Amino acid sequence: MLSFASNTMTALTPLDGSDDALLERMRQDDVDAYRTLVERHIDHAYAVAMRILKNPADAEDVTQDAFVKAWLNRHRWDAGRAKFSTWLYRVIVNRCIDKQRLLKTEWLDDVEEPAADITDAVTLIHRQRVYGRLEDALHRLPTQQRVALVLSYYEDMSNIEVADVMGTTVGAVESLLKRGRKRLRELLRRSEGDIRTGFAD
Q1: What's a single GO MF annotation on this record (predicted)?
Q2: Are 33 and 9 in contact (CB under 8 A)?
């Protein structure tokens, strides 16, 4: 759990109700409703930021900023405008992109694959290394491609939802996904086939 959550959620008993109901209460300065929204969404929001930034401290900063913004803008919230989760992802993505413009990322060297899967332990290590290579390859992509892939594959969003979060068109999202998958396949050409298959057209 993020330190933001642990510091803010002391003795919290989550409230029932939809996000819209909680947002309506939050507009009336109901702190408990706000805390419940944070409790409900913070882990997922952090996971998205972490996938994009691959830096725990930066991901936590972005996530905290997003929830602070939600509270500061509570009186402006229009329930008919968008789902809270969509708005939250949009803020997270935009903050991550801003962070990326300021950061220089150092890439991990490729990990040598084992010659053969001799034991279950070796098989597990091999799979962990391949997964690590996938994570590294994903982080080598241009930010927009990486964001589109994270939202589409890890968050299981439709192209329409991804476009809404990213503030672009469905056609642009489809192009980002296509180019991102192609680049990933190039980066993973020496990795196991089942990893590449997951990002097949």
Answers
A1: DNA binding
A2: no
| SS3 state of residue 5 | helix
3-102 topology per CATH: Rna Polymerase Sigma Factor; Chain: A (1.10.1740)
Check whether 105 has a pLDDT greater than 80: no
Note the pTM of the prediction, 2 decimals: 0.65
Comparing 106-110, 160-164, 188-192, the range with the smallest average pLDDT is 106-110
124 φ/ψ angles, rounded to the nearest 5 degrees: -65, -45
Residues near 165 by Cβ (< 8 Å), separated by ≥ 6? 86, 89, 90, 93, 151, 157
Shortest CA distance to 44 belongs to which of 70, 69, 17, 66?
66
Confidence of residue 40 (pLDDT cuts 50, 70, 90): very high
Rg, C-alpha atoms of the chain: 19
* 145 token code pair: 């491609």
State which CATH number among 1.25.40.10, 3.40.50.300, 3.40.50.1000, 1.10.10.10 fits the domain covering 120-197. Answer: 1.10.10.10
Residue 78 has pLDDT above 70, yes or no: yes
Could you state, in order of their start, the residue ranges of all structural domains in the chain? Answer: 3-102, 120-197
